[in-house]
Structures are given as C-alpha cells and as structure tokens.
Amino acid sequence: MKVAVAGCCHGALDKMYETLELLQRRHNVRPDLLLCCGDFQAVRNEADLRCMAVPAKYRHMQTFYRYYSGEKRAPVLTVFIGGNHEASNHLQELPYGGWVAPNIYYLGYAGVVRFRGVRIGGISGIFKSHDYRKGHFECPPYNQQTIRSAYHVRNIEVFKLKQLKRPMDIFMSHDWPRSIYHYGNKKQLLKMKSFFRQEVESNTLGNPAASELLQHLKPTYWFSAHLHVKFAAFMQHETSSKEELPKATKFLALDKCLPHRDFLQIIEVEHDPNTGDSLEYDAEWIAVLKATNSLVNVTQSSWNMPEKNSLHAKWDYSVTDEAIKEVLEELNHNLTIPCNFTLTAACYDPSKPQKNMQPVHTINPQTTKFCAQFGLTDINDRIQQAKEEGSGQGECEDEEEMDSNGSAEEPSEYNTDNSGLSSINPDEIMLDEEGGDEDLSTCSVDPSPDHPPEFSTSFSDIRIMPDSMAVSFDDAMDSNNEDLEKSGGSKQGEEKSSTDRRLKRIGGDENGNSGIKKIKRRNQAIYAAEEEDK
After folding, report:
1. In which element (H, E) is residue 279 found?
2. 33-36 vs 78-80, strand pairing mode
3. For the residues 412-419, what does the mean pLDDT come to?
4. 290 lies in a domain?
5. 197 within 8 A of 204, measured Cβ to Cβ
6. In angstroms, rounded to a whole number, what is the distance separating the alpha carbons of residues 290 and 307?
7. Which of 245, 439, 455, 469 is the residue whose CA sits 20 to 30 A from 383?
8. 461 domain residue, yes or no
9. Is 236 helix (H, G, I), strand (E, B) or coil?
C-alpha cells in the first residue's frame, strides 16, 4: 500500500492534491492514503480565521472551504492531526475525531484508526508545560490566551495513548519528539537550521511528552512536521527481555507545503489484502477511551494523571482482551467509521464576504453520536454546562491548583518549559506570548488563485520511497557515527536489512511500553509569497 505523507499543509489543499495528481501522471504512482502532520487549517469561513493563532497578515482563506462545501472532493482518503496554526473552533467540535469534509478525517486531540489493517495513531497540537496538566476548558470566542492554549497538548491524551499495548504501525505528531535529532544526521540539521544549535546541545528541542510516547509505542514509522525542515532518523529501541524481538522506528520530519521541497513523501507499507478500503475504528483505542472516560477534565485546574503512588487507588487503565471483545460485539464486528460528515457552519462565499462573522461554540452531531454509541463524555457539552453553571473559562484563575484526587498540586513531571526556541527561527511564524500585535478581529479572506502556477518540471517536491523508507540510513546518521550511542549505530550496516524486514508488519501482535511527548514551536513565513520563501 502506498502512503503519501505531507508536512504542514497550511490550507493549501488544492496544491497538495494537484501535486499527487501530477505524481500519478508523470510516474504512474497513485497513493492509497494521504497523511498530514498538522497545520492543516480546515478554515470554513471568516469566523474560523479569527480562531487561528497567527498574526493578522497571515490569515488567508486558502482552499479548504471548497472541500467543506462539496465544490471539490479530496481525491484520496486524507487523515490529519492538528498543529498550532488551525481553525481551533472547527477542530474542537471533534475532540474524538471525525470528518471535516467528505474523505478528509481528523484524528481528534489524540486518536487511533486502521486502514487496510495498518494501525495509524496521532496526537494533535504542540507541547507547552504550563497548560499540559489542564483540562480542555477553552471554547470560542477565544481570548489572547485561549486562542493559543486551545492547541496545547494535554496530559490526558498522553495518558490514554500510554495505555495502548498492541503494536503501532504509524504515528504522527506535529512537533518532534525531544532527542530524536540524536538519532539522525545532526550535523546536517544544524547546517540547515543553525539557530537550533542551543536547543539541540542542551537537549531541549522538541516535545518531552512525545519522546515518552515514542519509547512506549515503538511505532514502525513516526512522522512530524512543524519545524519546516526535512530530517530523517533511525531509532533502535531497547528490549525489555531476551525473548522480545528488537524494534526500531523510522522517523521522518517533513517541510511545509509548496513551493518548498520535501513537503511530501511516498512510502510503501505492508497491509492486509483481505481488508476493505474503509477507514476503521481501532477496538483497543475505543476500549481505552471508555476506560479513561472518568478522567475527563474541562477546567483550568491542574490535573495529574493517575500514578502508582499513595494518591491513586487505580493507575493502570490499559484494557483487557475481554474489554476489546466487548467493543467488537457492540459494533457487531463492523469497525467501519460511518461517513456521517455534517455541515455545522456557513461556508465562505467569495461573492458575499462576511468579515464581521463571529465564531460560536458548536456541538458537532458526529461527536454526539460517537459519545452516545460508546458511553463517552461529550467534552463540548460538558464545557457548555460548566459555562451555564458559572464555572466556565476565566473563572479558575485564582483557584488553588488541585490534582485529580483533590489534593494540593504536585510538581509537574516537566519542570521547565523548554519546548520553544530561545533563538529566532526565521522559518516560523512568531507569536508574541503576550498577544501584543495580534488582532483577533482582523482577517483576510482572499482565496488562493483558481489556477496556481504550473509545477516545476524537475518535480522536486515529491520523494517516492519504495518498500519501507526510501531515505537512506546513511542520510539519517552522521558520517562519523558520533550520534549513534543510543541507537546501536556501530552495527547499523549488518542489522539494517533484517530490521527492515521485521518492521514491515501489520499492527496487532506485540506489546509496547513507556510514554509520549510533544514540542512547541511557531511556524513562520509559511503563508508568505513565493518570492519571500526564495
């Protein structure tokens, strides 16, 4: 099965799909699935633009609205996660995932699905330590703080993913797992992005939570975006016992969408030929959602996840085979995700712009049905109830922080927020943390041109990768192997081919163990004109 993987899309869906069509015409390669690693920007109208955390000059309608309205249809099944430049009000409607347009599926705050037997997981947003232990309390209309905190990773999503035991084939995060740069060509990375040096040398570049998830899930592939640079790495995981087969993860970070190179990769993934072409629920993930439903928090109070200590009577929320079997029986062994996309907002009309349109808090019927089917808490419904009871956003500022047992605040597992850059990254949108020059009432609704320029005849924006990852392991390692202490690099040449064979599997046989992490960063001139990019 051919899988296309894209970096930051930034709403340029027409360009992305036209690139795939060009790939088919010129190379007779047609992907079966497209994955996008965040900053997708599912902007439906002018109100959505106001909910996107970018300076006003970068707020452009782009082309998603054409797919939302039905004017166009995604030519390939597209699955994406959220980043830090999104129409947060739109994605917030689907905390457990759902269709944002026909054939375009959002994984939610965190999620796991299956396609042709391949298990695909992901976590949305970026890491910010001071919001990590809070609940999802934000709702539109956002203020200068909540328009940012809405896309910050929360510990409950990480905790849920840590309960998974069955093997993961593909995992996506927007920001990079911290320390992953030690497993690739670090010299080349710093040559391209010299302003990363301080964070790389202090090992503070990246998402500390995603790093734990990488060690726990041990997926065959891990894809990220966010930093607008292509980077490959190969991480050999330690085994917990002599009986356990060695596992390794092929990591790839992708650049942003056109006109930049390397924003798209094609990989060949082994799949189950006996399965259909529908996107499916993952039974273990549904069981975990049910098991952890009592932990849902919609307040600003800090909330520590259960740990094996005297404060928590229960800390293991992983699920049994029996619980997974119950999910399968509930669904009559039909895991197909229903194609129940519904319009929940007016669509942008270029002939009738509505620059004063305001965002509203919406409960999506897809979420209502999903929660009713599996007995889950509808987070948005809970937020609305809290607002009606007078305990909505903005009223917890002076409350003493409490953990999930109601006791005084425990120290955070991440004491210092080093996930951002102390140096200036010229390839990222810079947002003033105090919200200085950002005007939430301003937006531009100029759509992209109907007929974008012809693509370069060099076709440099595509990288076709047959069988596993076509990125050379030599490219992922420093020439002197100084960065291979953790990945067993001295044996790389001998083990490469056998490891490749082991990695090509369908999720479902082995167990993983550990945790997750995510980074935080601000993408920059992504929306700028092509001349600026050059």
Report:
1. strand 279-281
2. parallel
3. 45
4. yes
5. no
6. 19
7. 439
8. no
9. strand
- 0.85 surpassed by pTM: no
**CA geometry: angle 40, 446, 15, nearest 5 deg:** 45
Per-residue burial over 224-263, b = 16 or more CB atoms within 10 Å of its CB, e = otherwise: bbbbbbbbbbbbbbeeeeeeeeebbbbbbbbbbbbbbebb
Domains held by the chain: number: 1
Q: What does the DSSP assignment read for 53-102?
A: -S-GGG----SHHHHHHTSS--SS-EEE---SSS-HHHHHT-TT-EEEET
Contacting residues for 70 by C-beta, under 8 A, at least 6 apart:
102
One-letter amino acid of 515: G
Task: Cite the DSSP H helix spans in 365-478.
Answer: 365-374, 379-388
3-state secondary structure of 115: strand
- Band (pLDDT 50/70/90 cuts) for residue 146 is very high
pLDDT of residue 262: 57
Rounded to 10 deg, the angle between the 155-162 and 208-217 helix axes is: 10
Domain that holds residue 82: 2-390
Cβ count near 412 (within 10 Å)? 15
For residue 120, the tally of other CB atoms under 10 A from its CB is 26
Neighbours of 452 (CB within 10 A): 14
Question: Which pLDDT band holds residue 261 (cuts at 50, 70, 90)?
Answer: low
- What are the phi and psi torsion angles at 111 (to 5°)? -170, 165
Neighbours of 494 (CB within 10 A): 9
Q: Are 202 and 155 in contact (CB under 8 A)?
A: no
Which amino acid would we find at residue 466?
A: P
Residues 406, 409, 415, 419, Cα dihedral to 10°: 50
User: Interior CA angle at 192 toward 186 and 194, to 5°?
Assistant: 80
Mention every residue, 6+ apart, whose C-beta is less than 8 A from residue 116: 1, 32, 271, 272, 273, 275, 276, 277
Is residue 304 in a domain? yes
Going by C-beta distance under 8 Å and a sequence separation of 6 or more, which residues neighbour residue 375? 290, 293
Residue 342 within a domain? yes
| Span 1-7, average pLDDT | 96
Alpha-carbon distances of 34 from 5, 75, 202, 307, 455, rounded to whole Å: 6, 10, 35, 37, 20
Tokens 């993952």 belong to residue: 282
- Using pLDDT thresholds of 50, 70 and 90, give the confidence band for residue 101: very high
Q: How far apart are the first and last CA of the chain?
A: 35
